[in-house]
C-alpha cells in the first residue's frame, strides 16, 4: 500500500497509512494502541518503568496524583497488553515488582519522537492559544 503525502510539506497523510485502516475487529491499529497508551497514567507508568523494575509503592510515589486503584488498573491493563511484566517473589509478604517487557521498552522511540515534537512546538501552541483566547474576548 502506498502512502500519500501532503503536497504542501511532503509529510505523509496519516489517513492513508496502514495504521489508520480498520481491520477485522472494527478498530484501526492506531485507535487500538491509543486506547491503551493514550491516557496519561499509562504513559507516566511506562516512562517511570523505563529505567528499571519498580515495586508498586515506589511507582505510586513516582507518579504524582495517581491513586492506588488507578495504578492497579493501569498496571493490569499494561500487563494484559504485554507491555509490563509482573513478577512475584515468594517471600513473606510476597515482593511484587513491575518491569517493562521488550515491547514496552520499544514504545520509547515513538513517544520520544512525540516528546521532541512537543518541545519544538510548545511555544507555538501557547502562542496560538493566547491569540485564539484574545480573539474570543474581543
Commentary on this structure:
The protein has helices spanning 29-37, 40-49, 56-62, 68-80, 102-106, 108-137; strands spanning 54-55, 84-89, 95-100. The chain is mainly alpha-helical. It has a three-stranded antiparallel sheet. It is globular and about 65 Å long.
For the structure shown, list the relevant keywords:
10% strand, 6 helices, mainly alpha, 138 residues, 3 strands
Indicate the topology.
Blueprint: H1 29-37, H2 40-49, E1 54-55, H3 56-62, H4 68-80, E2 84-89, E3 95-100, H5 102-106, H6 108-137
Antiparallel strand pairs: 1-3, 2-3
Question: Could you provide a short overview of the structure?
Answer:
The protein has six helices and three strands, in the order ααβααββαα.
Q: What sequence of helices (H) and strands (E) makes up the elements?
A: HHEHHEEHH
Structural class of the helix and strand makeup?
mainly alpha
Helix content: 40-55%
* Biggest sheet strand line-up: 1-3-2
As residue ranges, the low-confidence spans are: none
Overall residue-averaged pLDDT value: 88
